[in-house]
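Input (structure):
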């Protein structure tokens, strides 16, 4: 299980790193009022290597989530009995949170992925050789916001890439960081921190 988790974390990111470098026109871009942004040359290989795989993963997640929600609604009467028969830490509350995450993933991942691939497909660039694409690779290109304001789709795409990961983090924390076990852990950690600060305060300013 440990090595499978390591493979899931490392292999996809390594492949994305390799593909990103292959279609990277220069070092990076700096967008006004946004910050650093990848300098991806939007050619056909960039679409296939960087934008299509997330669509495929989102589509698979959409199908699996749909089956999970359908089966849960169709067999909800047998649900509790099935959980009680199997020796698992999964209970109805945790399963409902998983179903909720599946539903949110269905609503967000696939539509956003489709929007990104459609938006970037409108700006496809010609495919050049490796030498032409990586010529003057150390350039850092600066882009004024006024240029992006003239292209509302580009500014929307940049903000979408900025906030989707933040939104996903809040959603996952809301589902898995607010259940009973997590709340008791948060309370225990907070008590330890306050106790440590109280001890330090008493040692520094208290009387013997």
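Output (sequence):
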């Amino acid at each position: 299980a440990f090595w499978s988790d390591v493979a899931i974390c490392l292999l996809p990111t390594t492949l994305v790193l390799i593909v990103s470098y292959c279609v990277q026109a220069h070092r990076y871009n700096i967008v006004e009022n946004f910050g650093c942004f990848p300098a991806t040359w939007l050619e056909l290989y960039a679409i296939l290597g960087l934008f299509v795989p997330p669509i495929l993963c989102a589509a698979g997640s959409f199908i699996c989530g749909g089956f999970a929600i359908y089966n849960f609604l169709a067999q909800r009467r047998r649900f509790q009995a099935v959980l009680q028969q199997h020796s698992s830490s999964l209970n109805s509350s945790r399963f409902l949170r998983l179903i909720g995450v599946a539903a949110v993933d269905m609503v967000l991942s696939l539509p956003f992925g489709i929007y990104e691939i459609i938006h970037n497909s409108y700006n496809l660039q010609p495919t050049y050789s490796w030498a032409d694409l990586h010529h003057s690779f150390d350039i850092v290109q600066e882009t004024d916001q006024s240029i992006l304001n003239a292209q509302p789709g580009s500014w929307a795409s940049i903000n979408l890439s900025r906030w989707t990961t933040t939104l996903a983090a809040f959603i996952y924390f809301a589902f898995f960081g607010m259940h009973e076990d997590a709340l008791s852990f948060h309370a225990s950690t907070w008590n330890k921190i306050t106790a440590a600060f109280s001890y330090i305060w008493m040692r520094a300013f208290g009387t013997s």
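Notes: Residues 12 and 18 are 10 Å apart (CA to CA). The chain has eight helices and three strands.
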